[in-house]
Amino acid sequence: MARKPTVYKRCECPDQDRPKKGGCNHSWSYNRTNNQGNRTRATIPDSVGLTEAQAQGILDGMTPGAVPEPKDTNLKFRQWAADWLDRRRATETTVEKYEIAVRLHLNPRWGNQRLRTIEKRQVEAWVQDMEADESLANSTAYGHWKVFKMIIKDALQNGKLASNPTYEVDGPYVGESKPYVFTPEECWAIYDEFPHRYRVIPMLGFACGTRQGEAFGICTDVIDVSRRVLTVRRQVLKIKETQYRPRLVERLKTSPRIRSKTVPMPSYLHDALEEHMAAYAPQPTENIIWEHKKKADACKRSTAHALFWTPYNNLMAGNYFNDGLWKPTLRRLGIRDENGELPTFHDLRHTFISTCLQNGIPEHTVAAWVGDSVEEVRRTYSHLLRDHADTHGAVAARLTARPQPIVMGSAA
Fold it and tell me: Which of 166, 227, 290, 375 could disulfide-pair with 251, CB 3.0 to 4.6 Å?
């Protein structure tokens, strides 16, 4: 069996195997047998900047006797970004966010630049520009950064780049988020002020921590009266996959990691749901059982009875709820955050999670109720978990205190 060729360099650069450190600008070579049976020296194209192990990996993956193809030197960032988008298998809403980031931010900055000419110093300067842009929120900038890193990593893994220009580059700074937390008085004021037909929707937020689309998608079959629990497994989506019409979908935001979540249902929520269903009869609607990596049109259908409908006999949608119900209610009550902005429906979810954590409910239990990972809960609510040093510190100290010596009684 023929021995595999080995890569080498003929230059005398001080550190050939660490080109980024030593500044070696020479390609890696190897010996091969040509069609005439003669041994000849061949160069691995675009191997400048690679370590010996990386160059050997390229060589080992080649068909014996084949010549490595040079990379497309004229490939532009926008071309590879479009190719990358076409291959995404994430949920439709996620892919849509990727497309927006590429179209509105990444392509205007990087689109016409040749992919292989992007340098680390340019990436660092771009990160600084995003941080200095007051019109760009830190979290938005970090989202663009994550998409950019995924595209560059994909290009590197597909042999379109010799090195990763994002390597060891810190992304935009994202400060600790502190969402608005409603007081119990504010929660109940919202419930009392809300139009009677829809007042249960905000209650689902502060009583069970549901997301807005999940609250819209509550149906009769998820309300367990005997156990007093609510099983959340659907949401109402209005996206490209649903022709931008509100549709009931049996899939959560975190699917396929979590298909459903069960949360205790307070007695006041149970009573409010009973009152709502007595006054406004639930209506049957098509339920899309959305499976992972499938288009909506290819998924199975069933029927479910949804609780919340608009006066136009449509399922509740975010734009109708936010502009026509939520914001006017908060304005009438004068509820605003410290910056004078109106809190969002999602802040009701934050209120539920914060209240649970502050009252000693374990983080893994809260994570299961709201359908987040424990890591996500820790990252978002770290400021509340730090407070547990005060609330539970004394208990922890007693658990590890030195045992008191046992005094033996005198013998009878």
Answer: 290
Q: How far apart are CA 114 and CA 128, in angstroms?
A: 21
**Nearest alpha-carbon partner for 166 in 130, 132, 118, 101:** 118
Please give the torsion angle defined by the CA atoms of residues 178, 183, 188 and 189, in that order, rounded to the nearest 10 degrees: -90
Least Cα distance to 237 among 344, 348, 320, 317 occurs for 317
Q: How many residues comprise the chain?
A: 412
Give me the phi and psi of 357, to 5 degrees please. Answer: -65, -40
Q: What's the pTM value of the predicted model, to 2 decimals?
A: 0.64
Q: What is the pLDDT of residues 81-101, one digit of tens each?
A: 999 998 887 666 778 889 999
Instruction: Give the number of other Cβ atoms within 10 Å of residue 245's Cβ.
Output: 11
> What are the Cα distances from residue 289, in Å, to 204, 257, 312?
23, 16, 25
Stronger pLDDT, 281 or 68, i.e. the higher one: 281
Tokens 């040079």 belong to which residue? Answer: 70
Name residues whose C-beta falls within 8 Å of residue 83's C-beta, 6 or more positions apart in sequence: none
